[in-house]
Amino acid sequence: MKLEELLLITQQPLIEYSKNKKLLEGSRLFDIDERMDERKIPKILTNSDKYHVVEIANYDNLIIIDNEVINGNELIQVGQCIDFDSNVMSYLRNLIVNNKYEDDFFKILTNIKKSKQQISCVPYLIENGNNIHRINKIISYETILSFSIFDRISEFDFENRNFSRYFNDSEVILDTDDRYYHMMNIQDSNILQFQAIYLLVLMAFFIKNSRVKSRLLCKMLYNVFTISTYQN
């Protein structure tokens, strides 16, 4: 077992890291304190019968440990966003492109817009990027376009389903092209292994919580998935 793994199962990983910081140069540990009260999903995102926002972990209780933290420099701010998986993305395309949707699905999307939470389609990009020869590229582009529209659309326009004016919006097109390019080239990326592991974690989470028909997942913003770093 690696030293980092041993530290994470100790009672005081922060203290033990400090004792071994010379051996841990360049390492970063993520420790979730399970003894703290669990953070609750904002009430606005729980008001739905069929669709639910659930957390992979309680990141409010996350402690990030590295040499900078040990030396008193707090460099990383952890945030959260809502991930859309492939099922949710397909429903979103039906809504925006085909104007077909369930009322309950539209309701939770409306609540997401009101909540101002950051959103992501990383699971969809990873899944399709790793099956690039078996996807319908036109439908995939339309699906990503639908996500980009939802990301950019105003709360008023979404509630009134004013989607048409966004199909040719320059910012929406740029966002869509960038996401599509990332998806099409993901197998050539040097972060593929990290992303594949992340996807496996999501899949395991789905299996564990399979009672819920569909999910919109909260995750930590870190590394290649919209990292937020701040230097004091």
Task: Report a brief summary of the structure.
The chain crosses the membrane at residues 191-207. The protein is α/β, with parallel strands linked by helices and 232 residues long. The chain has 10 helices and 6 strands; from the N terminus they run H-H-E-E-E-H-E-H-H-E-H-H-H-H-H-E.
Keywords:
232 residues; alpha/beta; four-stranded mixed beta sheet; two-stranded antiparallel sheet; disordered C terminus
What does this structure look like?
The chain has 232 residues and is α/β, with parallel strands linked by helices. It has a domain of 129 residues. A 4-stranded mixed beta sheet has the order 2-6-4-5. A two-stranded antiparallel sheet has the order 1-3. The chain is elongated, with a radius of gyration of 20 Å. The C terminus is likely disordered. Keywords: Membrane, Transmembrane, Transmembrane helix.
Note the beta-strand portion.
5-15%
Q: Can you tell me the residue ranges where pLDDT is under 50 for at least 5 consecutive residues? A: 210-232
What is the helical fraction, as a range of percent?
40-55%
Assembly annotation: single chain
Structural class, by secondary structure, is alpha/beta
Report the count of strand segments: 6
Which helices and strands occur, and which strands form pairs?
Elements: H1 3-8, H2 13-19, E1 28-32, E2 51-55, E3 62-66, H3 67-70, E4 80-84, H4 86-96, H5 103-115, E5 118-120, H6 122-129, H7 137-152, H8 155-159, H9 170-184, H10 192-208, E6 214-220
Parallel strand pairs: 2-6, 4-5
Antiparallel strand pairs: 1-3, 4-6
